[in-house]
Every structure is written in structure tokens, then in C-alpha cells.
Design a protein that fits this description.
666 residues, alpha+beta, Phosphorylase Kinase, domain 1, eight-stranded mixed sheet, five-stranded antiparallel sheet, 18 helices, 33% helix, 16% strand, globular, Kinase-like_dom_sf, Protein kinase domain-containing protein, Meiotic_Drive_Suppr_Kinase
């Protein structure tokens, strides 16, 4: 009998061990994944407190950047996030096992704990390990679900990209071998702390929101709590002698927000966030009011604590939605639904905004934390406090979970006075008797026409044919196969190359800007090393073609390329696109927040590059490319860069063309 008992005990122990092994090594569900990321990854954040071992510098250099007039609390943020969770919890996806096993996440956590955060680079590494890669993996799995792919407008995956060295002139770098130093004639537009998050698909890459990283030893949680509040920037920028530390904190946090805000405006993006590792300041710029930026503060360690309250397959209260990855995931899915704003909106918004100008700057690092008034007396904002009380991430009793997130419209008149509500900060997940989270007004959505100019007025038009533009250049007959021929004239073109460029100049320089202006310029979100592509439509005559925008560093190269196209006139439309002319922009505009375009090269659209093509016969492409390149060389032009990214396939006419001649030799 004793032997049997021991065997049964050993068998139970073995079964338990096998169960634990399976739990550790199997793929996780979404709730399990969120829980493990908080416990094993996020809580591994370790900040270098030794100032001698940390990077120095001003964390809030907003000099000459576009700034808001007002900074306001984003009170509808929790309700908007809860609606995302409602969409997710309605899908069977949340109970399916798609994500990294626990044993792997624990190993990642060990790695992150070995590296203290003492610089923006360290913070970037921490966020890549604990946030960027994790959110990207969730989005990729969501894309595999047809229903969720449509719900959240997913193109495939998301990428976090830094553009500090994009569209900059590497040829200006010169190595001084005598002193072993590197010199550069023109300063780079370096944005080492800023990342743009893209909705990436096989044929397009659309900006969704921006992220600004600030090292936590430079912008501490104490600084944020002391400085983050509703502000009018005209007052914040008014310098006074012997200012208290709290005023300096306010100005510094305003400057940090301004850095992200400026990038959001120039990129035409509604959403962004500032991250210090400890805190996330989520931002929104409404399309109808670019002078105001709204903020919501998330402090996951305070909001969640050491555990999330999640129990396997539980319908009980938890704080998964308050974790760093939970907040950023819902924020990401919301931002991906909103189309990027076009050049018209960006130009209109820029014309309404002032720039940051502050003569006397005081570094935040000079303020000791002991001198900052204690923020302990400041309770969390009402919206943050209420979001801590709901629990939208549940896999059972979903109707109850949804009910807890669906706000009562009758609560709009509720008093903002929080006294007497019995709130206990030690029980953040306790459900209040009546939720006062308000459902936000309808926000930007795909296909919605509105002040944000989310869809360019010319985006519905197809490109003119090469034969059409050839007729315009040579003063010939119309191409009846051109999709826009009805607007070009009768029998013959009403414009020539010069009048087209003149009218386009007038259209793009329209001084009477408003959100619904028709500038006819739409970013294609495609750039090379020296230029970016735009879809251009001349509204008066319907001509639609491509504009290659270049920043000031590359204007001379663009003019050289225009000379090359002139040399190649005999083969324009067959081996190279039709060139319509160059246009110095009287009112420059931003390319996706990366660089300011000051010059536009206009040419016919010849198709996608070979890099982006699928299903073409390689041998046929190679032979046609060789023929086109030979035609270029026959006119005394050496292309110098005949890579697949500079070769396009004209599907309409079944031929290969070469583009990008800025490096060519005549």
C-alpha cells in the first residue's frame, strides 16, 4: 500500500512538472502575453542614478520648433482606449495561442535587467526589447485574422523607424586623417530620439504616429508630475527671475511635448507619445484645432503594481489594459485607423502656429528633485483614476466587460469634483458605482472627409499616360487613352510645359489656406537617398503626375538631374519618363515630418520599381533594362547607379524605364 502511495505521488509530481513545462513553453494567449510582458520585461527597468555615469545635455531643446498654443488634458483617452479593447475582446483571437512563450519572455527579462538605462540609446534598447518588438508581434498576428485586419486597418506589420540621417548629404562628411576627426559642412537634421511608427504593407508604408524617447534620468517622474498640467504656452514662455522649480518643470515638460508636437504637425499625424521608460505621455492633435495638443499620463508601475491581477481564463478584475504594452497596443491600433493628413492640412496648420522662442533657458538637470514640490498631494487626473477602475481585458463574461467600458451618455453632466467618491488609490481596479468615462466625439476615420484633409483631392485620379504628357510637351494631339483626357482640352492640349509649371506654381502657393484647400499634392510615403515622391494634380486641367521633392541640400543635384533629362529628351516616354520641368517651391512643405521640400521635379508616372514588383519574368526584365540603359548611354549619359530601385516597370506599355539621374555623368 505504501509503495502504491509513493508511485501515485511520484506520478502526480511528474504530471505537475509536465504541466508546468507545458505552461512555460507553449505559446501564450494575448492576456497571458500582456501579463508576462509587464511582470518579466517592464518591471525590469533599472535607471542609472549616478549622474557621473549618465549622459548630460538638455532634454527639451524646442528652439524654433512649431509649438501649440494650449496643452490640455485628454479626458476622453480612457474611453477611446476601452473601445479598442471592446473590439479585441469580441474576437476569438484573444483566447488563441499566438505569442511568445513564458520561458522566452523570462530570458528576455534577464537580459534587460543586466543593462541600466543611462542614456537615450539605453532607453531605446529597453523599449525595443520590451515594447516595440512585442507590440509589432501582436499587430502581425492580428493582421493574420481577416476580421481584425479590417477592423484595425492593418496593412501587414508595424515598424518603428528613426529618420535622423534620412535625406541628408553624406558627401559632406570629410575625414580629417591628421587629427582623426570627422567634419561636416552642413549640420544633419538629427532626430536621434524620435521614431515614426509605420503601417507597413507589401506596396505601401503609411506613417501612423510618432514616439519621442527621453532618458528617465533627464526627465524624471518627479519632473513630469510637477510640470505636466494644462497650460497656455504664451504664459509658460514668459520668463521671470527667481522662478520656482515647479515653473521650470512646467516649461521643460511643455518643451518636451513641443518636440513631439512639431514632428506630429510636420508629419500630418494625429497621434504620438513621449516615453521615459517610467512614464508615457500620450498626445493627440485634433484636425480642426492644431493649436491645441491633448495629453494623457500613464505610469504603468503605479497604475498596475507588481502584478496585473490576471488569473488564467478569469473574468475577474485585472489591470492588463494599464500595463505599458496594453496602453501602447490599444493606442497603436487606434492610430492605425486614422489616415495621415495631407500637405494641404500641414501647410494650413503650420501657417497658424508660432515657434518656440525662449531667450533664457534653465536646464532641468540643474533642478534637484529635492527642490521640486512634492507631487504626492496631487491625485491622479480624473480620467486616469477612472480608467484604473475599469477592467476591459476579459476572456469570459464579455458582456459585463463591455458594459463596464461603455460609458453612459447621461454622465456628461457629471461634476468634475472628485471629492466624496470613496476612491482608494490602493485598490485601483475597484469598479466605481457609476463610471464617468465619457465616450469621445467621433474622431478621424478612414475615408472620412473633414478638416484634416485626410484624403488628397487628387488621390482619386489616375496618372496621365506617358503618351499624354508627351503630347503636352510637344504640343501634339491628346491621348484618348489617358484617364484624364476629358479635362485636357479638345483634340489638342490647351497647355504646354511652361504654362503647366506656371499654373502649378500658383496652385501650390495659394495664400488663402484652409483645411479644405485643394493644393493637389499628396505624399506617396516613398523616398530615396535624396528625394521623396508626391502625387501631383493640376486641378484646372486634370494633369496628374509625379513630383520628386528635394530638401535644400540636394537642390543642385536636382538641377543636375534636370539637365540630364534634357539630354535624354529623344528617349523620354520610352526609356525614361517624360520630364515636365523643375519648380522651386515658394512655400516649402514637409515630407512626413522628415525633411522640408524646397524644390519639385515634375515627371510622368512610369510605374513601380523592380524592387516592389511581383511575378515579372527576370530574363525579360534584364533584357529590357539592358536595352533602355544602352539607349541612355547612346545619348552620352552614364547613369552611375543602375540598381533595381532606380528601374521601373511601365505596366501600361510593357517596358522598362530608368529613373534617378542625380548621380549621372554627362
Amino acid at each position: 500500500l505504501e509503495e502504491q502511495r509513493r508511485r501515485e505521488q511520484a506520478e502526480r509530481a511528474q504530471n505537475q512538472a509536465e504541466l508546468q513545462l507545458r505552461l512555460q513553453t507553449q505559446q501564450t494567449t494575448l492576456p497571458e502575453f500582456l501579463d508576462a510582458c509587464h511582470v518579466h520585461l517592464f518591471l525590469g527597468l533599472s535607471i542609472q542614478q549616478d549622474k557621473d555615469s549618465s549622459t548630460k545635455g538638455d532634454p527639451a531643446n524646442a528652439d524654433r520648433k512649431l509649438r501649440p498654443e494650449k496643452i490640455r488634458e485628454w479626458t476622453s483617452f480612457p474611453a477611446e482606449q476601452a473601445l479598442v479593447w471592446e473590439d479585441l475582446m469580441d474576437a476569438e483571437f484573444v483566447t488563441e495561442r499566438h505569442f511568445t512563450p513564458l520561458v522566452v519572455l523570462k530570458e528576455y527579462g534577464k537580459e534587460t535587467r543586466q543593462r541600466m538605462v543611462s542614456s537615450e540609446l539605453d532607453l531605446g534598447y529597453f523599449e525595443r526589447q520590451t515594447m516595440e518588438s512585442r507590440v509589432s508581434s501582436v499587430v502581425e498576428q492580428l493582421h493574420a485574422d481577416p476580421q481584425l485586419r479590417q477592423t484595425f486597418c492593418l496593412n501587414g506589420k508595424i515598424t518603428f523607424e528613426n529618420h535622423g540621417n534620412t535625406l541628408t548629404d553624406d558627401s559632406n562628411l570629410a575625414a580629417d586623417m591628421d587629427s582623426l576627426t570627422i567634419t561636416q559642412n552642413n549640420p544633419r537634421r538629427s532626430q536621434p530620439d524620435q521614431f515614426c511608427v509605420y503601417n507597413n504593407g507589401p506596396d505601401e508604408k503609411i506613417p501612423a504616429f510618432i514616439v519621442e524617447y527621453k532618458a528617465p534620468h533627464k526627465v524624471s517622474l518627479a519632473h513630469i508630475k510637477a510640470g505636466l498640467q494644462e497650460m497656455n504656452l504664451d504664459e509658460v514662455l514668459r520668463f521671470q527671475e527667481k522662478e520656482p522649480p515647479e515653473d521650470i518643470c512646467r516649461r521643460t515638460i511643455a518643451a518636451v511635448i513641443t518636440q513631439a508636437f512639431s514632428y506630429m504637425i510636420q508629419g500630418g499625424l494625429e497621434y504620438g507619445y513621449v516615453c521615459t521608460g517610467e512614464a508615457f505621455i500620450f498626445l493627440r492633435v485634433p484636425p480642426e484645432d492644431p493649436e491645441t495638443v491633448y495629453y494623457y499620463l500613464s505610469v504603468p508601475e503605479e497604475d498596475v503594481g507588481p502584478t496585473t491581477g490576471w488569473v488564467d481564463e478569469s473574468s475577474g478584475e485585472n489591470r492588463l489594459h494599464l500595463t505599458a504594452i496594453g496602453q501602447v497596443l490599444a493606442f497603436t491600433l487606434r492610430a492605425l485607423r486614422v489616415p495621415v493628413r495631407d500637405v494641404t492640412w500641414k501647410s494650413w496648420a503650420t501657417s497658424r502656429l508660432k515657434t518656440w522662442e525662449m531667450v533664457y533657458d534653465v536646464l532641468l538637470g540643474e533642478i534637484e528633485e529635492k527642490d521640486i514640490p512634492s507631487s504626492e498631494f496631487k491625485p491622479p487626473t480624473r480620467s486616469r483614476k477612472e480608467y484604473c477602475r475599469v477592467s476591459p481585458v476579459k476572456t469570459r463574461s464579455r458582456s459585463a466587460a463591455i458594459a463596464s467600458c461603455n460609458p453612459s451618455r447621461d454622465s456628461a453632466s457629471a461634476s468634475s469634483d472628485d471629492s466624496g467618491d470613496g476612491y482608494d488609490p490602493d485598490t485601483p481596479s475597484r469598479q466605481p458605482q457609476e463610471s464617468r468615462i465619457l465616450r469621445p466625439p467621433p474622431s478621424s476615420a478612414p475615408g472620412r472627409q473633414g478638416p484634416q484633409g485626410s484624403r488628397s483631392q487628387g488621390s482619386s485620379r489616375q496618372y496621365c499616360t506617358q503618351e499624354c504628357l508627351q503630347g503636352l510637351v510637344k504640343g501634339g494631339d491628346l491621348d484618348l487613352k489617358c484617364p484624364n483626357v476629358s479635362d485636357h482640352g479638345v483634340d489638342r492640349h490647351r497647355l504646354n510645359r511652361k504654362t503647366l509649371i506656371r499654373k502649378l506654381d500658383k496652385q501650390l502657393s495659394n495664400d488663402k489656406l484652409h483645411p479644405d484647400s485643394k493644393l493637389g499634392c499628396e505624399s506617396l510615403h516613398v523616398h530615396g537617398t535624396r528625394g521623396a515622391l508626391f502625387k501631383i494634380t493640376l486641378h484646372s486641367h486634370g494633369y496628374t503626375f509625379v513630383g520628386k521633392g528635394v530638401p535644400v541640400e540636394f537642390v543642385q543635384r536636382a538641377r543636375h538631374e534636370e539637365l540630364v533629362y534634357s539630354r535624354l529628351t529623344p528617349i523620354q516616354g520610352t526609356s525614361v519618363p517624360i520630364f515636365l520641368g523643375g519648380l522651386p517651391l515658394r512655400r516649402p512643405f514637409s515630407y512626413d515630418g522628415i525633411a522640408e521640400m524646397v524644390h519639385l521635379m515634375c515627371m510622368g508616372y512610369a510605374g513601380k520599381t523592380l524592387v516592389r514588383q511581383r511575378g515579372l519574368d527576370p530574363d525579360q526584365m534584364l533584357q529590357q533594362a539592358a536595352n533602355s540603359l544602352q539607349a541612355v548611354h547612346a545619348l552620352g549619359v552614364l547613369h552611375s547607379d543602375p540598381i533595381p530601385g532606380n528601374i521601373v516597370w511601365d505596366e501600361r506599355n510593357g517596358r522598362v524605364m530608368f529613373i534617378d539621374f542625380e548621380r549621372s555623368i554627362i
